[in-house]
Amino acid sequence: MAVAISLCTSLNTKNSIPPPGGRCKYTGQAVRALPTRILTVGKKRSCGVQLIVDEYIEKLKHYCHIDDVQIRSNPRNARDVMAQIEHEDMAFMYHIRSDDWVVLLDEHGNDIRSEQMAELIADAGNTGSSSLLFCIGGPYGHGRQLRKRANVSIKLSSFVLNHQIALVVLMEQLYRVIAECCSDLQKLLELGTHAYGRKMKCVGGTKLFNKEERKVMEHHHVMWQTLHVNGSAIF
């Protein structure tokens, strides 16, 4: 079952990241966590890194569908660096669909914090895209086609990170953002508080929630109304 997450977001412009601070225009609204894919270029991962990645994938599957896709470094064994970049670029483009929201991880990308990562994920859910796609390149960076296709370019650190380390950092941030936001929404559903009218108003209308999700939220809204009329306090 897809999960809606309560976030604030203001990321709307291609290749831009919202500045820290200020009020987000979607504050307190519910946004669907899109199915997510992570494309990584590189050689075979170490056992330790793969164990960490697998652990985060299992955790994230409770909140959204997630796929880990590995692309072989230098797929055509080119000797020229530019040819290698071009071949990896073509491999990336093969996996990208027209309705993907593409996030490029690049050392020259926009520097973001965890809060802005939440905004990025939330905004992707309001673009009409069917899935969220993160791209981690090889040692020589990304090719021209992928850079042109990307909706957003970000960097995870001012340090230059090995692609395996970058993947671990990305997985941790995705889990931190999505799990915390979904947990906040679940608390609202369990309590059925007055915040329902504000928190449950979703971008694009109730169509973001399936029948089962709407039924649960409507039940808790009725429960709050009953408590309120009777003068009872929830907290």
From TrEMBL:
Q: So which domain of life are we looking at?
A: Eukaryota
Q: Which InterPro entries match?
A: Alpha/beta_knot_MTases, RlmH-like, tRNA_m1G_MTases_N
Gene Ontology annotations of biological process type: methylation; rRNA processing
UniProt KW keywords: Methyltransferase, S-adenosyl-L-methionine, Transferase
- The parts of the chain that form a coiled coil are none
Query: GO molecular function, one example?
Result: methyltransferase activity
Q: What is this protein called?
A: RNA methyltransferase At5g10620
Q: What is the lineage of its organism?
A: Eukaryota, Viridiplantae, Streptophyta, Embryophyta, Tracheophyta
